[in-house]
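step=predict obj=Nuclease-like protein n=331
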Amino acid sequence: MTTPAPSSAHRRAFGTPGAGLASARGIAPSLVRAGTKGEELLASYSLQALQRNPSMMVFFSLRPPGQRGDIDQLLWAGGQFWLMDAKHWRGAAGGVPLRYEVISREGDQLHFVRNGQPFKGGLVNTPKQLDLWRRYLSPHLVTSVIVLTNPEAEVAADASNRRTLVLTASGLQAWFDGFGVEGSALDQVWVEELARRAFEMPRPGPAAPAPTRSSPPSQRYPSQQSLQHPSIHSGIGASRPRPSSPSRTAGWMLLVAALLAWIAPAVGVVPALVATVGGLVVRKRLRAAGARSTLVALATGIGIGALIVNIAMLATAAYLVTTGVAPGIPS
């Protein structure tokens, strides 16, 4: 897509449409092209809607928390979030429009068929994504929207339900127009939180001129630096868990484990050795005197067993340290 001129709408749009597919690996080029075209078409429809409705906001190529993949876009409209998923499936065959319907909603997938027949790509993971984003965006309401971006594609009337809407390209336009222009604004903390998750890719073309000092701040397009301002510490989004840095106590824990692995067996060898030697000496003297002692024999056996166990523990600790599995004791 060409880079649009900065305007009031683009101050409310973050990320790059199709950025996730552009950087994906292991996907057939034909699928990447179709997917990218669908995302760009959906983005163009959304940006047009943003121009008409100042209460809307959109985040492209948004990566779910703790996940590798991304979603096509997250739309804020009508006081709630909409999880938008573009599907650029075939629209016609031999001049006959292709009709899509949902035949199964079991588990984490929706099963689409085309003119009553299964097709490659007809299993959609939208329900799984929706559950993930509902937990993350709580307490906001979140509904998923699957958009068939090919203008020739048709959709069955019963394909939508209260969790997931299924819209054609023309139906999407009418759906956008149904939102009032006076919708509630998204909290700024959430804006910054989600902007950090939007995947930005550099776009070709000359860099935009820097804003002049006379330009009012409200007319400037927010940069990624401004979206990551360190002064944001409170609010709904800021209260979410962030990936934590490695614990400073990890080194001490490893050191303690190493000390126990070496010292405990080493200390245990001494009494085991004393018990073994003492038991053998006493037993030899009792035998010389013609006496028998089951207790002495039992103690000797326990001492020998303890000695073997502690020697085995020492050998195991030495093996782990020499192979690098466990840390050694620093000198």
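step=describe
The helical segments are 19-22, 29-52, 126-137, 169-177, 188-197, 224-227, 250-288, 294-323.
step=end
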